[in-house]
Amino acid sequence: xxxxxxxxxxxxxxxxxxxxxxxxxxxxxxxxxxxxxxxxxxxxxxxxxxxxxxxxxxxxxxxxxxxxxxxxxxxxxxxxxxxxxxxxxxxxxxxxxxxxxxxxxxxxxxxxxxxxxxxxxxxxxxxxxxxxxxxxxxxxxxxxxxxxxxxxxxxxxxxxxxxxxxxxxxxxxxxxxxxxxxxxxxxxxxxxxxxxxxxxxxxxxx
Length: 206
Ligand code: TYD
Fold this sequence. Notes:
Helix 3 (about 60-85) runs parallel beside helix 5. By secondary structure, the chain is α/β, with parallel strands linked by helices. It has helices at about 15-30, 45-55, 60-85, 95-105, 110-120, 135-145, 155-175, 185-200; strands at about 5-10, 35-40, 90, 130-135, 180. Helices cover about 55% and strands about 15% of the residues. It has eight helices and five strands; from the N terminus they run E-H-E-H-H-E-H-H-E-H-H-E-H. The chain has a single domain, classed as Rossmann fold. It is globular, with a radius of gyration of 16 Å. The structure holds thymidine-5'-diphosphate. Thymidine-5'-diphosphate binds near residues 12 and 93.
């Protein structure tokens, strides 16, 4: 039995990271062996590319090529082997972030991104994508309390509304794998929503 491939998505400040660890524990309690990873990143090479993407100035095509190069390495060396061994992979961001940030945010052509996606992923898609959806203004308030911003976190609310629209467009295209979480409210309220999704979508492996 191959492992489940689960991704977490949302604009910066939507709060997805705080639910990743709880999700890992929830899955482990139900018998899943879980590998937690992130994008861009997840291998030594992909982490190098992450540094460049987050901190060096570049245009949207370069961004897209670098995140897909990082993704190729991550998929080939980490994600695919783990799934083949039956391990559940829990990934902080994946290709939907490229459609949302480079596509929605930067205005880069979705058609080109689809082509890169097809080359790099060879049909691999997450089984479940948990999208933490929050209005950009509310996410900006949450981000203001956080550490020093990277190239994306420096962007204004209009950029993040476009990123949010990018996620919405992907969710409309592939509704069967998407679970939208209303990310408003306190942590416990949002976690209860996440748990409902996990209960409905993740098999018990005990
Ligand atoms: P993020 O996942 O929010 O990590 P942290 O919580 O450590 O800041 O940061 C990754 C950033 O990279 C985020 O702003 C979105 C951006 N990104 C893209 O622009 N394209 C992509 O394909 C991916 C995976 C991320």
